[in-house]
Amino acid sequence: MGTDSGERVIVRRGGDHTRRQAQRVALELFTSQGYEATPLRQIAEALGITKASLYYHFPSKEAILRSLFEDRAAEAEDLVAWLRTQPRSPELLETAVLRWVESFSADKLQGIRFMAANPLIARAMSSAEGGRVGANLTALADELVALLPSPGPTDGLLVRMSILSINAAVEAAAGTDTDDGDIITTAAAAARALLRLIMAGQDRG
Amino acid sequence: MGTDSGERVIVRRGGDHTRRQAQRVALELFTSQGYEATPLRQIAEALGITKASLYYHFPSKEAILRSLFEDRAAEAEDLVAWLRTQPRSPELLETAVLRWVESFSADKLQGIRFMAANPLIARAMSSAEGGRVGANLTALADELVALLPSPGPTDGLLVRMSILSINAAVEAAAGTDTDDGDIITTAAAAARALLRLIMAGQDRG
DNA sequence: GTCTATAGTGGGATAGAC
DNA sequence: GTCTATCCCACTATAGAC
Fold first, then answer.
1. Does residue B37 sit at the A interface (CB-CB below 8 Å)?
2. CA A52 → C1' C14, Å?
3. What is the pTM of this model?
4. Which of A33, A164, A175 sits opposite B138 (nearest CB)?
5. pLDDT one-digit tens code per residue, A38-88
6. Nearest Cα to A187, choosing from A169, A201, A162?
């Protein structure tokens, strides 16, 4: 993914403007209707072009899906990479989880909504052997559980739940008119509550 | 179903045995692959019959889906009905949420997995005007928030999250070999932690 | 209650002109 | 880069025999 730092300075558009628009529209439709339930025709129509024209920009429907997913996976990869640079300590667990949850500014929440709306696809993509998305959230959770002094059998589950609290909050807010900022702060509060639960267990362990 | 005329005495099965089997198989496949991604042919094959035979038992694919969903929705309805018989108090919030979360014995978890795997469909069915599934979880959450002495803007979200903690736990456990019992007890612990969060906010409010 | 055969539809994908 | 036209296939659903 874009590991070069400059990201090509400025005017990137024109070259792939339609392609980016297609990704934006696809993300919306896949989120509101689901991937399988969204025909390419609908994406094309929203762009004002035909189905066939879409194939100039993407070789297949699945390629659109993958392009979306890889954008999101990059964020998890970045966090895992950062984790590896940090000194290992139990406190790092809380720091990492909150860093993850709070990294979602309102515009990035759309990515979480997409994942939450297509859980089976998100799972399949995470475990795809294609390479790319190796550093998924499960890997992150494993790294974090290993930080605990005496990890119990359900601690892995709790850590995963705390990481996924942003997903849970988005899912719980679906269908309501909850403010995006409220979703994020509530998810962070929930994550902290779960982490306290884990730490309390460590004391007893 | 009614070609009787005696002789049937006890053995009620056989009457809708295939139908029930179809529901069982459909629940499994819809959960592991998703509703849209599962062709009727696959369900039929798993039963050892043909696609056409399936149409003897269900008028459409959607009818299979609905039959599954209505079974699950009945549980939420029961809890809401029970809620209405209880004296109103803030303590009822915790009682109700835990009653819900812990009502999932291991065999019922499959229903939650189905919902978790098909969130868009679950949402669409919940808000379907067809009548039946009126008492969904959102309605339950609203009843519960109303029990709080001074409900804040994010309390509704937190209550929904605590109800959905069983879903969150199932989702977090997906892809791992977590024991079903551990999932339920962890979900209950998480629900309690979120409820404590809500109650702490009430003190300050 | 299950079968074979088939209708009918819609979607992903391609060919080739402009 | 976008179009029209088309292919191919898989799926839902139906018809009618046994």
1. yes
2. 9
3. 0.91
4. A175
5. 999 999 999 999 999 999 999 999 999 999 988 778 878 888 889 889 999
6. A169
